[in-house]
Amino acid sequence: MVEDNALVTSATRILLEDAGFRVSTAATLSEAQRIAQSDAPAVLLLDLRLPDGDGLSILARLRDAGVPAPVVVALTGRDEPEVRARCLRAGCVEVLLKPVDIRALAGRIRSWLEPGAAST
Amino acid sequence: MKSTLADQLKPDARSLEERLAHFEEQHLRLSRQIAELRNEDAMKTQFLANISHDLRTPLTAIITHAEILRDGILGELNPRQRESVIGMINGGRQLLEMVSDILTYARSAANQLTTSHTEFTIEGLIDQVTTLNGPLIAKRALSLSIDVAANLPPVHADRDKIHHVLSNLLGNAIDFTSSGGQVWIRAAMATDEPRPTIFVEVGDTGIGIAPEHHELVFREFAQVDASPSRAHHGTGLGLAIARKFVELHDGRIWVDSALGEGSRFRFTLPCQPRQTE
């Protein structure tokens, strides 16, 4: 999860770890790139507004670094069709409006990882 | 003779020209001031929208952390600890609701509200809203009756917004009716509308509203301050937002009530949005 609010990442980590996932958190793009290069994520929960730039720009950086493409879910505070369209164009499978219901996330992550097999 | 008259009028003409120039200058200055004030007002509204939006993220995270504790994910709590954590969650949710109201109000004041239309039935919506309020109605020992006319057509509207309106009206009815009272919801086709329109009434046998306050209750930040209502929490934005939402759908909302005689809040909702929308 790339998100600069530690309150949010800590709650997400607890709930997702409780659901059986391994979670890494990054507060900046550069931190996210460093972590992804050593431990490629299967799913990337990506805040769009980060201290060192536009969240979506991490996707090209990971591609260039040869990191296998993760399932990308954008987290945005702006409920605007243009924002959504931009995320989908960049390759996100879903755009979630913040504040995100973290408790509902675990189940959805499974469905993004294995479409049609949400319970495995 | 002629030149004399012209000479006599000259000073008047000059003074008229001077006055005209003065008025023009004043007009310009006032127009500029109005534009500045409008600009400042828009900036404050935008600030309000930004700040309430930014408040929601940490607030939601606080509630989630409290839920993690409540659910025993980090270890079981004893019953008293759990009760205390539930208090945090409830307080946080109340605060979140108020922040959301302020955000909605700021967005509507800045004309930033968008609607997303789907087809749904009023009956289903009433069912959902009453189910959500069921525990509260039982706790307050109120009796609730629902009367939905048969064969109401589905409506094409913003379901979340109409849900918000209905929840707000039912919430008020519950809040302002003392234990043992009655609360009801009626829905039928409106009879005096130019196009197919649904009419909804949320009524109660509660404290009621004096006729001189009927318009006031729909105004922003207004709480009819005659002591009883002050015991009820809220931002004073609930009905102002309900009115905005109903008007976004080309409907009307109003109240029929008198002090001590309960209230009947009514609104209309056209079944289809206008073609131009």
Short description:
The complex is a heterodimer of chains A (120) and B (277). Chain A is an alpha/beta fold and 120 residues long. Chain A has helices at residues 6-18, 29-38, 57-64, 81-89, 102-113, and strands at residues 43-47, 49-50, 53-54, 71-76, 94-97.
Description of the molecule:
The complex is a heterodimer of chains A (120) and B (277). The longest helix of chain A is centred in the first third of the chain and has 13 residues, at 6-18. In chain A, a hairpin with a 2-residue loop joins strand 2 and strand 3. Chain A is 43% helix and 16% strand. Chain A has helices at 6-18, 29-38, 57-64, 81-89, 102-113, and strands at 43-47, 49-50, 53-54, 71-76, 94-97. The two termini of chain A are 22 Å apart. Chain B is an alpha+beta fold. Chain B contains 5 helices and 7 strands; from the N terminus they run ααβαββαββαββ. Chain B has helices at residues 2-70, 79-109, 122-139, 159-175, 238-248, and strands at 118-120, 143-148, 155-157, 182-189, 197-204, 253-257, 263-270. In chain B, helix 2 (79-109) crosses helix 5 and helix 4 runs antiparallel to helix 5 (238-248). The A-B interface holds A 5, 7-8, 10-11, 14-15, 18, 77, 79, 98-99, 102-103 and B 53-54, 56-62, 64-65, 67-68, 73-74, 114.
